[in-house]
Amino acid sequence: MPLQKFHYRNLLLGEHDVPLTCIEQIVTINDHKRKQKVLGPNQKLKFNPTELIIYCKDFRIVRFRFDESGPESAKKVCLAIAHYSQPADLQLLFAFEYVGKKYHNSAGNINGAPPGAGSAAGGGSSQKTPLFETYSDWDREIKRTGASGWRVCSINEGYMISTCLPEYFVVPSSLADQDLKTFSHSFVGRRMPVWSWSHSNGSALVRVAVIKDVLQQRKIDQRICNAVTKSHPQRSDVYKSDLDKTLPNIQEIQAAFVKLKQLCVNEPFEETEEKWLSSLEGTRWLEYVRMFLKHSAELVYMLESKRVSVVLQEEEGRDLSCIIASLVQVMLDPYFRTITGFQSLIQKEWVMAGYQFLDRCNHLKRSEKEAPLFLLFLDATWQLLEQHPAAFEFSETYLAVLGDSTHISLFGTFLFNSPHQRVKQSTEFAISKNIQLGDEKGLRFPSVWDWSLQFTAKDRTLFHNPSYVGKSMPCVQNGSVKPFKRTKKTYSSTLRGPPAPAENGLPRDPAPLARRSSLVLRGRPAAARPAGARDPDGVERFLGEWRARPADPHGVLLPPLSGAHVRLWKLRYLRWVPEAQIARGGAVTALHRLSLLADEVDALSRTLRQPGAGPERGRLYFRARGPHDAPATPDFLSSSFPFSPVGNLCRRSILGTPLSKFLSGARIWLSTETLAGED
Fold this sequence. Notes:
This protein is of the alpha+beta class. The chain has helices at residues 71-84, 94-104, 135-145, 177-184, 217-230, 243-246, 250-264, 273-283, 285-304, 320-332, 339-351, 357-360, 373-387, 396-405, 419-432, 457-460, 488-496, 539-548, 570-573, 587-609, 658-662, and strands spanning 23-30, 35-38, 51-56, 61-65, 150-153, 169-172, 194-198, 204-209, 238-242, 309-314, 473-477, 480-484. The protein contains 21 helices and 12 strands. The protein has a 4-stranded antiparallel β-sheet with strand order 2-1-3-4, with helices on one face. The two termini are 15 Å apart.
């Protein structure tokens, strides 16, 4: 396979850099003595290593050979990497050292730009991502959703009530502050009922932890349900979903992910598709993705069709409920399918809601708490993106890069278990370093939403989905401004290709013939429903009616859940496997053609709105140069674009890399063939 000459460049990382928090396991090998050892922190190495293997959380495998270096130098390098990649304390992570220097440096610049200067959504958007750290952010969200009967509560200012909730959150208006203070002691983690979102019909989505006070459980539960009912304009009933009983637990999800990782990094890659697909099914990862999508769709039915409020109940209310609450909102609210909206959703339902990024992402290598719940959410979102491409402003590249950013320990967004932990730890660090905070509540870490810190404006255009059908925009006709609409006939259906069967733009379920390298996990056929059997919840009828309607990218989205529709996210899991790559093929070829077509449509739109206007910088990475240019697929494209198409197999020696300097002339083999010496 030809080497790919292009891959996106992260401004924070060198071409071959691996963040220390991205390292999962370090293995040293001595070929001569046939010994190997997994290195942990503060461990001794009794043999001189001839090879070092670094297993990364993003499924990369990096290898170093020490054939030309001294034995002591090789040992020191291995021990140093093992030591610094497994810190014993949170304040030893790179973000603290960086922010400490930033506060002592009056300039405080990152890559030549002041922090927050590029905190827009990305790709040239001027919209800022709300962080939900202030009262006003929550108040604006209430007004945006039109939620009546709900108010912003500030009883947790200074984290006086709960250390795993934000300082401000939304509660039913009928619940007084004193009632909330009284009830809070009965909930696990004092996580009282918190509003997530409201439907235009008045139904609301609420999250709550389990009531641990058995004697008061029924009384408090009834009080909470009554308050949620009063917040509904029609005083509708409340539907409670017990996620602990409905969905797999975090241990099962982690076990499935470990099996998936072993399958994807296995060397050599499995010889036959049949064996590989059966192994993929055995991991149960796609089964769990399907379960979360299915349960979210059922709750969409309750909110949209039944018009009742939904309460998500979970032991601590900060794990599975993050996934379900986010997926429900993505399916129901088109705002959360934009880049800015999706980022605000993650801030609201994950960061500020107290999702334990530090433990679940295993930044400190305490594996007993590790679980890829955020990745599972991104995977489920990718499934929706694949099934409804015209409904999402962002691309799968954006989702993949967002997942990678959780392993970069510069951003405070994905570094802590709660907002309170950020304030507490950073304040302690500031005191130890004699940093004056003034009125600030803890140190201010860079936000991951400031994408200009990681990527150039050109590379950020890869975040945009060319199939996205945007809202109407102004058009100048005869001197007057009129709405210019990208209708389905003139825009979206063209981008999607031939018209789809009349099931809300989705293909029907009859199973197609299996294709090689399809990497589709087929589910077992569902049991036939007896004739005349009653569907008590009406979910199937709701799904059938929705599929019968014309596709609306700005309406409700529901996922088809058959095995043919829930696929493996190849760009995320197989991008480093050479055998899985398709040179000048894969989904990127469609992306390339769609981008060229969408760029032409954008150019025509600008001409209609402002006749005689000059060319502007496009929103898409691939640009249409002219009507006579051949839209040939560039040679550098592969199915892993924009990432490196090669991965875990070491085939060629590499000389002269930056690491070879401090390795005293070591010869290095990496898992990236793009590093190989060119002929």
